[in-house]
Amino acid sequence: RRAEWCLGRLLAKRLTIAVLDLDPADLGRVELVTDDLGAPSMFMGEELLAVVLSLSHKRGHAVCFAARGRTATGEDSVMLGCDAELHTRRRPGFAERWLLESEQALVGSARDRDLAATLVWSGKEAVLKALRTGWRRPLSSVEVEVDVSWGMPPEAVWLPLSAKEGPEGRDWSGWWRYDDGRLTTVVSAPPPRRPERI
Q1: What is the mean pLDDT of residues 98-111?
Q2: pTM for the whole thing?
Q3: How far apart are the first and last CA of the chain?
Q4: Residue in 115, 96, 112 with CA at minimum distance from that of residue 104
Q5: For residues 18 and 39, what is the distance between their CA atoms, to the nearest angstrom?
Q6: Residue 73: predicted pLDDT
Q7: pLDDT per residue as tens digits for the range 167-184
Q8: pLDDT at 76
Q9: Three-state secondary structure string covering the chain
């Protein structure tokens, strides 16, 4: 777990350097600071850097996404969240307990129900991270929509997903991919381009 924690922070620092075009020699000066809910911000000394990022880790694997996106007053102009999950067998009753009826129907129509349930769960987590609320907001406040007509998704190909906060809430756009038994999701507002590896 400690190695995952360190890996996530190293990824965040390197990504910040790349996205903001900073000198790689400044890697040691860039610091990740989290708020009470674990939402990260990047600093160099006392300066809040103009990058919005999200990171996630799961069993030795870490992912981090970043975008330029902070106004001169320090407010985020981009909301960004990501999640990493493993493709595992879900316990009976998982969908009924954690997913909305529309999402349960979506999962029920999928050829790989465990993968579809994990994907919907991951999309919800990504939105809660983008909102910087974590679990202080219920999962039921986010509805995920995604195409589950595939048998097994292609490896390492980004596919679209969308989500909505409640009946009158914000619409989210995002991407997901399946890679060697792992699922990665990312959402943002405004809508993100297809993710690029740096």
Answers
A1: 95
A2: 0.89
A3: 24
A4: 96
A5: 20
A6: 58
A7: 678 899 999 999 989 999
A8: 67
A9: CHHHHHHHHHHHHHHHHHHCCCCHHHHHHEEEEECCCCCEEEEECCEECCEEEEEEEECCEEEEEEEECECCCCCECCEEEEEEEECCCCCCCHHHHHCCHHHHHHHHCCCCHHHHHHHHHHHHHHHHHHCCCHHHCCHHHEEEEECCCCCCCCECCCEEEEEEECCCCCEEEEEEEEECCEEEEEEEECCCCCCCCC
Q: Are 155 and 148 in contact (CB under 8 A)?
A: no
pLDDT tens for each residue of 69-90: 765 555 668 899 999 999 999 9
Torsion angles phi and psi, residue 38, rounded to 5? 90, 5
Q: How confident is the model at residue 156 (pLDDT cuts 50, 70, 90)?
A: confident
Using the CB atoms, write b or e for 130-165: b if 16+ within 10 Å. Answer: bbbeeeeeebebbbbbbebeeeebeeeebbebebbb
